[in-house]
Structure to design on (322 residues):
């Protein structure tokens, strides 16, 4: 008869040490695994029940430690860490590779005309808006008016940026024009993410002590979280949008690509996908998901409240979002 699984496994935290880059990378390779998108609602619900029961002290009979961690990572890939709600499927980090390889591949293929630039930048920023909202930090609700205003501001800013860069690139060599989509995406991320998470900048995100006790909300923590996410997202785009253009520029001069120009888009999408499989988890791992900052970096009134509630606390922790 097998032993019952220990109740001392801390599944509130990732399986690997998040104080090291390698530990974070292993964690995010599991969270961003594209195969998780294909999991059925029944599998997701089964994982949720296993995780929530274990957290409540109830162990599913016959459950092994590996099965528990597998359920935890299925749960993490589909449910929001702060609200516990099931996330919209294309907004999940496990959908990043298949969605981004398709959109980015098309952006890199169809970059020569203004209508194509506008359309694919709009598609990309609409997708980014879904991802940014789905992976926001905190549990405060956002109204449809706030969401609509943020979406319009973010997508308009991104499209205008792309068109401005495209007009500048017309006076530069063709190889430089190929990098316009990357420059536009990098600039747009700096616009889209703060706009879609502007409520956090205004009202703050939850900050906790090392034991997970909520101490208040901080806009300063939100600023740090959003900056880290912007850096990570730009990092994700670098390999996928910088390497394929160089390869495609060389391939398009080959006889077989001239003979079969229809191969351009699928080859480009494939190259982007190969880059994203590695870039997505590795760039998510640049910063810990459970980010931290010194109490002295918080707002004055929150510092005072923490000194009264928890005088020994010198560092607070918060979910930075993705």
């Amino acid at each position: 008869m097998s032993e019952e699984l220990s109740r001392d496994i801390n599944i509130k935290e990732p399986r690997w040490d998040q104080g090291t880059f390698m530990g974070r990378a292993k964690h995010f390779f599991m969270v961003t695994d594209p195969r998780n998108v294909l999991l059925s609602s029944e599998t997701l619900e089964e994982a949720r029940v296993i995780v929530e029961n274990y957290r409540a002290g109830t162990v599913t009979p016959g459950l092994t430690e590996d099965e528990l961690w597998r359920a935890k990572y299925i749960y993490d890939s589909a449910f929001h860490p702060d609200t516990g709600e099931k996330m919209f499927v294309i907004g999940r980090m496990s959908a990043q590779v298949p969605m981004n390889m398709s959109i980015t591949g098309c952006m890199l293929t169809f970059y020569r005309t203004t209508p194509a630039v506008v359309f694919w930048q709009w598609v990309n920023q609409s997708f980014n808006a879904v991802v940014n909202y789905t992976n926001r930090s905190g549990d405060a609700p956002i109204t449809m008016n706030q969401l609509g205003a943020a979406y319009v501001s973010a997508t308009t800013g991104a499209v205008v940026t792309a068109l401005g860069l495209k007009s500048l690139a017309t006076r530069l060599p063709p190889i430089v024009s190929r990098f316009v989509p990357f420059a536009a995406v990098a600039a747009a991320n700096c616009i889209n993410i703060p706009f879609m998470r502007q409520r956090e900048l205004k009202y703050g995100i939850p900050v906790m002590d090392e034991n997970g006790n909520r101490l208040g909300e901080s806009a300063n923590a939100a600023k740090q979280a959003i900056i880290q996410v912007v850096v990570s997202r730009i990092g994700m785009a670098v390999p996928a949008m910088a390497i394929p253009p160089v390869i495609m520029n060389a391939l398009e001069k080959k006889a077989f690509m001239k003979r079969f120009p229809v191969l351009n888009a699928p080859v480009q999408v494939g190259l982007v996908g190969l880059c994203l499989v590695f870039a997505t988890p590795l760039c998510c791992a640049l910063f810990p998901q459970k980010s931290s900052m010194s109490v002295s970096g918080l707002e004055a009134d929150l510092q005072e409240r923490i000194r009264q509630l928890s005088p020994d606390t010198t560092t607070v922790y918060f979910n930075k979002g993705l």
Summary: Residues 219-251 form the longest helix (33 residues). Strands lie at 205-208, 214-218, 290-294, 315-319. The first strand starts at residue 205 and ends at 208.
